[in-house]
Specification:
GO molecular function, one term: zinc ion binding
Order of helices and strands: HEEEEEEHHHHHHEEEEEEHHHEEEEH
Keywords: Metal-binding, Zinc, Zinc-finger
InterPro entries: H3K4_H4K5_MeTrfase, SET_dom, SET_dom_sf, Znf_MYND
GO cellular component, one term: nucleus
Shape: globular
Helix content: 25-40%
Distance between the termini: 83 Å
Number of helices: 11
Strand order of the largest sheet: 13-14-15-16
Protein name: Histone-lysine N-methyltransferase ASHR1
Number of strands: 16
Structural class: alpha+beta
């Protein structure tokens, strides 16, 4: 019988993709054919998902649309936009509903999106093991199990929090025997692998675990982008992706200097070595935008590592923090003044 990885590779092969070992990165996704800009490289439904605002009913628990929502009359936690979504969710929600209906109001208020996501994962795993919910090569718990948790790199305070959250999960589903250490590891996997589901205007709607898309590695110069339609995730090519080329997306906001990007990536426990990060200072200087105070120099000021000064990357002349604050204030004043001008599309000419 084929292993789960072999089944996954067969499924991905039909989509022009393959899981491969990437030097210095671990697993990654590579193209086995050419993708052109705009092509859908991969699309996936979440293994589990949950809205961000659980008790207020801001979006449907299944499709994430907002509008005329109805609350589940039994658990008083879940919201649906209609009977179709409720039916789609029923096999999973039936167990979840009983568990949440038994909670006190205080316990219900402790249902954070992360806790809810974990409860749903535990229940879906149980239902797939019992063949109540079907599993497939791209929708099974083995793919969750294979995700990296980086638990050995997590600090002690966070480990304590994961342990407390694992205990809360066990209180919510007392009839299921849980390995609390495994739950803590899975919570750590969420931190590294779960995705924020956004609307077309990039407003966060919820959180989902897309365990195949999670195989895709990060780059600050990605060749693909992750977008959402409801809770369905799409990876689209931003540029031509050739055969045997790694598919990459950005985990963070890329319009920032290297230092800020690396700081944002700390939660994923790696340091990016993409071409943009290796190139470094010249682009950072342009993004930071502070001109050297030496009139004869065309360099830009960058923050000194571990200091409060800004130093020119060309001539090494420095400005202290107070000078930079003054410059920022002047820039903001000019920006406010500019934004107050009429914007009819005509060019204003002053004598």
């Amino acid at each position: 019988m084929a292993s789960w990885l072999e089944l996954l590779q067969r499924e991905l092969a039909g989509r022009g993709l393959a899981v491969a070992s990437i030097p210095g990165k671990g697993r990654g996704l590579i193209a086995t054919r050419t993708f052109f800009p705009g092509d859908v490289v991969l699309n996936q439904e979440p293994y589990v998902s949950t809205p961000n605002k659980i008790l207020v009913g801001s979006s449907c628990d299944h499709c994430f649309t907002s509008g005329k929502l109805r609350k589940c009359s039994m658990c008083q936690v879940t919201w649906y936009c209609g009977s179709d979504c409720q039916k789609e969710e029923w096999k999973l929600h039936q167990l979840e509903c009983r568990a949440m209906a038994a909670l006190t109001e205080d316990r219900k208020r402790m249902l954070t999106p992360t806790i809810r996501l974990m409860v749903r994962l535990v229940l879906k795993r149980k239902l797939q093991n019992e063949k109540v919910i079907p599993s497939s090569s791209i929708d099974n718990y083995n793919l969750v199990d294979a995700l990296e948790s980086h638990i050995s790199k997590v600090d002690e305070n966070q480990l304590v929090l994961y342990a407390q959250m694992a205990n809360l999960v066990s209180l919510i589903v007392p009839l299921i025997e849980l390995d609390l250490q495994e739950i803590a590891h899975t919570l750590s996997k969420f931190a590294c692998n779960a995705h924020t589901i956004c609307d077309p205007e990039l407003r966060p709607l919820g959180t989902g675990l897309y365990h195949v898309i999670s195989i895709i590695n990060h780059s600050c110069v990605p060749n693909a982008v992750l977008i959402f339609d409801g809770r369905t995730a799409y990876v689209r090519a931003l540029q031509p992706i050739g055969k045997d080329e790694e598919v990459s997306i950005s985990y963070i906001e890329t319009a920032a200097v290297t230092k800020k990007r690396h700081n944002d990536l700390k939660q994923y426990f790696f340091t990016c070595t993409c071409p943009r990060c290796v190139k470094g200072s010249e682009e950072d200087a342009l993004l930071e935008g502070f001109r050297c105070k030496n009139q004869a120099c065309d360099g830009f000021l960058l923050p000194d590592s571990g200091k409060k000064d800004y130093t020119c990357q060309k001539c090494s002349v420095s400005r202290d923090e107070e000078e930079i604050k003054k410059m920022r204030s002047e820039i903001l004043q000019l920006s406010d003044k500019a934004s107050s001008f009429p914007s009819s599309g005509s060019i204003l000419v002053y004598d």
